[in-house]
Amino acid sequence: MKECYNVQEYFLDELQFGGQAATFFLLNGFQLKGVLLHYDDQVLIVESGGKKQMLFKQAVSTICPSEAVEFPSEY
What we know:
The chain is an alpha+beta fold. The protein has one domain (7-65): SH3 type barrels (Roll). It contains 1 helix and 5 strands, in the order H-E-E-E-E-E. The longest helix is centred in the first third of the chain and has 12 residues, at 7-18.
């Protein structure tokens, strides 16, 4: 039986454990460039400019990683 992954969790895991920078676009138009440190069901913890910030997932419209995230063929 194939293990099924949540696409969002896979993408965020790749950002978190890869340690690569990303740009987080918020619904209000603000852009935050930083590294994803941790996430859960509702929030993202991002380090930017030496400060840690908590972003609510519902306020994030787009996440653009600095490098492409490769997905397995099952997706």
